[in-house]
Amino acid sequence: MALPATDKRPRVRLVIADIDGTLITKEKLLTPRSVQAVQRLQEAGILFGVTTGRPPVGTKMLVDSLAGLKFIAGFNGGMIVRRDFSLFKQNLLEPAAARQVVDIILEHKMDVWLYTDKDWFVRDLRAYRVDREEATVQFPPKVTAGFDGLFDRVVKIVGISENYDTVARCETNVQERCGTSVSAARSQPFYLDVTHPNANKGEVVRLAAEFAGIPLEEIATIGDMPNDVTMFKVSGVSIAMGNASPEVQRAATYVTASHSEEGFAKAMEDFILPRKDVSAA
Q1: Structural domain of 113
Q2: Dihedral (CA of 77, 132, 38, 246) sign
Q3: Closest Cα partner for 2 from 264, 255, 258, 277?
Q4: What pLDDT, on the 0 to 100 scale, is given for residue 101?
Q5: 173/211 same-domain check
Q6: At a CB cut-off of 8 Å and minimum separation 6, what does 150 contact?
Q7: Is the distance from CB of 113 to CB of 141 less than 8 angstroms?
Q8: What is the domain-level CATH number for residue 154?
Q9: Segment-wise mean pLDDT, segments of 10 residues, the chain, 281 residues
Q10: How far apart are the C-alpha atoms of 252 and 50, rounded to whole Å?
Q11: Quick check: is 176 in a domain?
């Protein structure tokens, strides 16, 4: 979906990218072409930040590789840090809401993870995807039989199941029963992420606009999952990955290639970065 050479691209001064399924490959790797794309954004005077369901500390490997990365909105905006990991803002779930969410997830026979502002708690180290998550975020969880006593510092709750339909039903149920006290959306088909109502990717875009003094229409966002649609709705330019569902793709301004086909780098080259073959006039 590259733009014709005669087209003028919208002015973009900030790009916000999802990480898993977008910025990195299926193997959780950052490709040299993507590193170069972020470098070119920096050279063009375009700011770059990331937003993810991961805890901020789980992105350290990206910070080490991306000199142009300005901020990390971890936990889908539950905790926003600068590139040196100093805290900028955090949104903690109300304890009563956190307890209710855990109860609903357990009613659906799903596993539960609890992230506080400092730790990650699981009930069983051998449970589904715990090992994969540990490899991704690069720090180990703490094991607890129950979550009593932990609800006062909760940043994110994750419901996990191998049954994708169950995860979708639980998402709807949490939204219906908890209302505006939480933000609940699937970050992966097997993950339901639940955070503070102001901890969603749409709010990340608004906060970034305010902090950087950049109008929403001059911000571009790129992602692949339903929870990325919240940032598509408020940014001036939105790009869906080729590996995104048809629903997510329909919500975006443009669609790029998949994360296994250099989709992020192609999107920056095709839709954001200045073209050398087009006159500035």
Answers
A1: 95-195
A2: negative
A3: 255
A4: 98
A5: no
A6: 114, 116, 121, 144
A7: yes
A8: 3.30.1240.10
A9: 55 96 95 97 97 92 92 95 93 98 98 96 97 91 96 97 98 97 92 95 95 96 95 98 97 98 98 68 36
A10: 18
A11: yes
Same-domain pairing of 37 and 129: no
Per the structure block, which two tokens stand in for 154? Answer: 């909760």
d(CA 232, CA 115): 26
In a domain, 249, yes or no: yes
Cα Rg, the chain, nearest whole Å: 18
